[in-house]
Design goal:
This protein has helices at about 15-25, 60-70, 70-80, 120-130, 175-180, 240-245, 250-260, 310-330, 335-365, 370-385, 385-400; strands at about 5-10, 30-35, 55-60, 80-85, 85-90, 100-105, 115-120, 135-140, 145-150, 150-155, 160-165, 165-170, 185-200, 210-215, 220-225, 230-235, 265-285, 285-290, 290-295, 300. By secondary structure, the chain is α+β, with helices and mostly antiparallel strands. Strands 6-5-14-15-16-13-17-20 form an eight-stranded mixed beta sheet, sandwiched between helices. Strands 8-2-1-12-19-18 form a six-stranded mixed beta sheet, with helices on one face. The longest helix is centred in the C-terminal third of the chain and has 30 residues, at about 335-365. The protein starts with a strand and ends with a helix. The protein binds flavin-adenine dinucleotide. Flavin-adenine dinucleotide binds near residues 56 and 173. Flavin-adenine dinucleotide binds near residues 14, 56, 197 and 276.
Length: about 400
C-alpha cells in the first residue's frame, strides 16, 4: 500500500531525529512516508575518542523519551554521566554559603537529577533506531528553496532533487532557513554574551555535582563528565570570550579557576574549546498549513538552565502525538487546525521558559545593590521553602516528559 502522506523533516539534530523516530514508531506510521534531510554529514560517535566538545544536560524526562523510542540503552551503555547534586550560587557569596541553592537526588528519592551526554552520541543512538524503520535519511543535502505547489510543499535540494511534502517539519535550528523562507516572523533578543565551552581536569573531584556560579558577565556552568573531567559553559562578554578563545591552555585554566572561585581547586584545560554567540529567539507562529517548526527553529533559549534540547524534545513528542491523533480521526496531518493543536500545546510552555531564562540572566547580571539583596534573599528563601523547591525540581526533572 502506498503511504497516504509525505512528511519531510528538515534537520537531523536531536529534535528532528527524535520526531522522525516517534512518527515512524507511532500508530498508523504505515500511512506516512518520512524523509529526513540534513545539510551536514552523518554524525559519527566513537567511544574510543575523546568526549566531544558539545555535551548537554538531559533531563530524566528526556531520557525516558529516548527509552520509549529504543535509543536509551545504547546511550547508557556507551558513555553518560549521571549527576546527583546541583549547586547554584552568586559571585558575591561563597560556593557553599547560606544562599547557595542545593539540590540532591536522594532528598527527592531519585537516583539522579539528570545526565550529561554528548550531542553526537544522542544523535547516533536515535539514528540506530531509525535504521530499523522505513525513514529515508539524506545527509549532505541542503534545502535550497521551498514553496507551495497546490496543497503540498515542494522542496528543492542543492543537487536539484525535488521532494514533495504534505507536512514539512522545520527542525533546522535557530537560524532556520525553512522558517525564514516561508516568512514566519521571529522575535530575537541578543544577549550580547558569548558562551565559551571546554573540558577541564579539576584538582578536586566533581563528585557528580553540576555547579553554576552566576557572575556579573553571565553564568559559569560546570558539568561533570564520566571520566572525572568537567565540561564548562562560560557565558561572558564577547570581549572576554575573545580573550579566552585566544589564551593558551595555562592562561585559560587560570581564568576559569578564578571564575569558578576555586571550587574545584586548580582547573587544567584538557580538551577542545569553542565559542557560541548567544541570543534568544522565538517564532511568532509555530505552524502554517502543511508546516510546523520544532526545537531551536521555533525557540532558542539561554543555555543557563540547560533546557534548549529538552524543550525541543517536548515539541517533538507533542507534534508526533498530534499527527498520530489526526491520522486516527481521519484528518489530514498538515491541516492548519490539526497543527494548531501542537502550537497550543507548546507555545505557552516555551514562552514561559524563554522569559524565565532571560529574566534570570538579567537578574544575576545586574549591578544594582537592591537587586543583589533581593536575589540573595530569594535564594535563601528558596532553600528553606520545601514545596517551592520540590515543585521547581519536579519541573526540571520532568522536562521532556508529558
Ligand atoms: C553552549 C550551549 C550549551 C547548551 N547546553 C544545553 C544543555 O545542557 N541542555 C540542553 O537541553 N540544551 C542545551 N543547549 C541547547 C541545545 O544545544 C539546542 O537547543 C539543541 O541542540 C537544538 O537542537 P535542534 O535539533 O532543534 O537544532 P540543531 O541542533 O541546530 O540542528 C539543526 C540541524 O539542521 C540542519 N540544517 C540547517 N539548515 C539546513 C538546511 N537548509 N537544509 C538541511 N539541513 C539544514 C543542520 O545541519 C543541523 O544538523 C545548549 C546550547 C549552547 C549554545
Amino acid at each position: 500500500m502506498n503511504p497516504d502522506y509525505g512528511i519531510v523533516i528538515v534537520g537531523a539534530g536531536v529534535t528532528g531525529l527524535t520526531v522522525a523516530a516517534l512518527l515512524a514508531g507511532g500508530d498508523h506510521s504505515e500511512r506516512l512516508r518520512i524523509t529526513v534531510v540534513d545539510a551536514a554529514a552523518r554524525p559519527q560517535h566513537n567511544v574510543d575518542e575523546e568526549v566531544e566538545l558539545r555535551v548537554s544536560a538531559i533531563s530524566t524526562g528526556s531520557a525516558g523519551l529516548f527509552d520509549s523510542i529504543g535509543a536509551w540503552q545504547h546511550i547508557r551503555e556507551t558513555r553518560v554521566c549521571a549527576y546527583e547534586h546541583m549547586r547554584v550560587w552568586d559571585e558575591a557569596d561563597e560556593a557553599d554559603g547560606p544562599s547557595t541553592l542545593r539540590f540532591d537526588a536522594d532528598e527527592f528519592g531519585i537516583p539522579q537529577l539528570g545526565f550529561i551526554i554528548e550531542n553526537t552520541l544522542v544523535r547516533q543512538a536515535v539514528l540506530r533506531v531509525l535504521e530499523k524503520t522505513t525513514v529515508d535519511m539524506l545527509f549532505r543535502s541542503t534545502i535550497k528553496s521551498l514553496g507551495r505547489v497546490g496543497q503540498r510543499y515542494r522542496l528543492e535540494l542543492d543537487d536539484g532533487r525535488l521532494l514533495d511534502a504534505d507536512l514539512v517539519v522545520a527542525a533546522d535550528g535557530a537560524r532556520s532557513f525553512v522558517r525564514d523562507s516561508v516568512g514566519i516572523v521571529v522575535n530575537s533578543w541578543p544577549y550580547e554574551q558569548t558562551a565559551v565551552v571546554t573540558h577541564l581536569r579539576p584538582q578536586i573531584p566533581h563528585r557528580y555535582t553540576a555547579r553554576q556560579r552566576f557572575l556579573r558577565e553571565g553564568p559559569l556552568g560546570m558539568l561533570p563528565l564520566a571520566d572525572g573531567r568537567i565540561s564548562v559553559v562560560w557565558t561572558t562578554t564577547p570581549a572576554i570570550a575573545a580573550l579566552a578563545t585566544q589564551a593558551d591552555d595555562r592562561e585559560l585554566g587560570s581564568m576559569l579557576t578564578e571564575a569558578s572561585d576555586h571550587v574545584f581547586g586548580d582547573l587544567t584545560v584538557a580538551g577542545p574549546r569553542g565559542s557560541f554567540p548567544l541570543s534568544a529567539t522565538h517564532a511568532q507562529d509555530y505552524v502554517l498549513p502543511g508546516l510546523a517548526l520544532i526545537g531551536d527553529a521555533a525557540h532558542a533559549v539561554h543555555p543557563l538552565a540547560g533546557q534548549g534540547a529538552n524543550l525541543g524534545l517536548q515539541d517533538a513528542r507533542a507534534l508526533a502525538e498530534v499527527v498520530s491523533n489526526a491520522l486516527e480521526r481521519g484528518e489530514h496531518p498538515g491541516d492548519r487546525l490539526v497543527l494548531r493543536r501542537y502550537e497550543r500545546k507548546r507555545k505557552g510552555a516555551n514562552t514561559t521558559m524563554l522569559h524565565l531564562m532571560t529574566g534570570l540572566n538579567y537578574l544575576f547580571a545586574s549591578d544594582s545593590l537592591l537587586l543583589g539583596e533581593l536575589r540573595r534573599a530569594g535564594m535563601r528563601l528558596f532553600n528553606v521553602s520545601g514545596p517551592i523547591r520540590e515543585y521547581a525540581v519536579r519541573v526540571a526533572l520532568d522536562a521532556g516528559r508529558r
